[in-house]
Specification:
425 residues, disordered N terminus, 24 strands, Immunoglobulin-like, single chain, 6 helices, binds fe (ii) ion, globular
Length: 425
């Protein structure tokens, strides 16, 4: 059995960012059209350890303060707001570098310079500062060019494309993988495989690292993503190996409390929660939240991703009783078509299920386990009554959404097709 970490849920964010101006468009971009990028109004979540051993302090706008190693590292992006109109950039520097800026625009000339924030991360690394910048006011379905850092220490120039407008039936491609822990090289191969299929966003089903509190493991994980994570957002969940440790929160960009959240991309509503709960997080809070969240969306597609599977024939972990009790009924009532989990190191797909009984696809939930991004494979798959397919292989999942059809394909790291199936809303 995998060890269960004993992290403690962090407090709801209370530390605001005085580095952020609320929402007026940058005057620098007046000439490049509307809408133009501006700094987001919501505060940046400054992660703290559960026991509050570290008390990170926000930098103020020392835009010209550079340390000995100010070059931005591990630049990566995610969403804390609307994927069609915003982006969040995170990067690392040495602890002394306080300059924390993003330049962004519709072409390589950028046009707007916006402030970020920074805070210290942990105590087990000399490269201890995390920088985060949030950009709002972006046009949907548009490619944006950006760089981060500050004068004298800019990163390379990167680009990303915003999501189409919410509700759009424009086709798009998403990738899903999980459980890379202990094998950053395999994670790189997974990222390369996903890129070959043109994924526009990535979901990660947890257990990126063996021990979530070890910053050096996260360094390995983000270093392994170079060339991929700067341009395609990654949305994660907390696995039992993350243990709700500070780096999970500090280094990822998610909406809300970053532990359970949802977002829309095109006509798909994606939602996630933390099924490796700690003492201060209970099941009812998240279950109630998910029910309300699913009830509130008008999107025809509802996809949930989380760590521990509700249905899995892979032993020893098997199915998670709490997920079945607290989330499966909510998913069924809420009209979820696809549930993607990790934790059990193989690939599995169930038949469509309602109350544990096979039903026509559109009437039930299809459950997939994708936990093949590097952790040692489990060798004890069992075909149970609900098992459509199980494969022991390192792999990743690619979803192609084309309006009223979603095609999911699982590939191994040699590019071989392991499974393909289609869903209708
Ligand atoms: Fe796990």
């Amino acid at each position: 059995m995998e060890p269960v970490e004993t992290g403690v849920a962090p407090p709801v964010p209370t530390v605001g960012s005085e580095a952020h101006e609320s929402g007026t468009p940058s005057p620098d971009l007046a000439a490049v059209g509307s809408p133009a990028p501006f700094a987001c109004a919501e505060p940046i979540y400054v992660a703290q350890t559960g026991a509050s051993v570290d008390v990170p302090v926000l930098a103020d706008q020392h835009v010209d303060t550079l340390g000995a190693a100010p070059a931005p590292k591990q630049v990566h992006i995610g969403w804390t707001g609307d994927p069609s109109a915003s982006m969040t950039m995170i990067w690392r520097t040495d602890a002394e570098t306080l300059s924390s800026l993003v330049q962004i625009g519709p072409d390589a000339a950028f046009g707007a310079t916006l402030p970020g924030s920074s805070f210290l991360l942990g105590t087990d690394t000399a490269d201890g500062r995390v920088h985060e910048a949030r950009v709002c006011g972006l046009a949907p379905g548009t490619t944006w060019h950006y760089r981060v850092g500050g004068e004298g220490a800019w990163s390379e120039a990167y680009s990303f494309t915003t999501a189409p407008p919410p509700g759009s039936t424009e086709p798009f491609v998403f990738g899903v993988a999980g459980d890379s822990r202990g094998s950053p090289g395999t994670w790189t191969a997974v990222l390369a495989g996903m890129a070959s299929h043109g994924v526009e966003l990535r979901l990660f089903t947890g257990d990126a690292v063996v021990q979530g509190s070890r910053v050096y493991e996260w360094d390995d994980w983000y270093d392994a993503g170079a060339g991929y994570i700067e341009s395609v957002p990654t949305m994660m969940v907390n696995g039992n190996h993350e243990g709700l440790a500070q780096p999970y929160f500090a280094l990822s960009a998610h909406p809300g409390n970053e532990e359970w959240y949802s977002f829309d991309y095109g006509n798909v509503h994606f939602a996630t929660w933390n099924d490796s709960v700690a003492s201060t997080t209970d099941w009812t809070t998240q279950s109630s939240w998910l029910a309300a969240d699913l009830a509130a969306t008008a999107q025809p597609w509802k996809v949930v991703f989380h760590h521990k599977p509700a249905y899995s024939g892979c032993r020893p972990n098997g199915e998670d009783a709490n997920v079945r009790t607290w989330f499966v009924p909510v998913e069924e009532v809420g009209g979820v078509q696809l549930d993607v989990a990790g934790h059990n190191h193989n690939y599995e797909r169930s038949v469509p299920l309602l109350g544990g009984v096979e039903v026509p696809q559109a009437e039930g939930v299809t459950y997939v386990v994708t936990a093949g991004a590097g952790a040692p494979l489990y060798e004890n798959n069992q075909a149970l009554s609900y098992t459509a397919l199980s494969v022991e292989a390192h792999h990743y999942l690619v979803g192609v959404v084309e309006g009223g059809q979603m095609t999911l394909s699982a590939y191994d790291l040699a590019g071989n097709l392991l499974d393909v199936f289609t869903l209708a809303p």
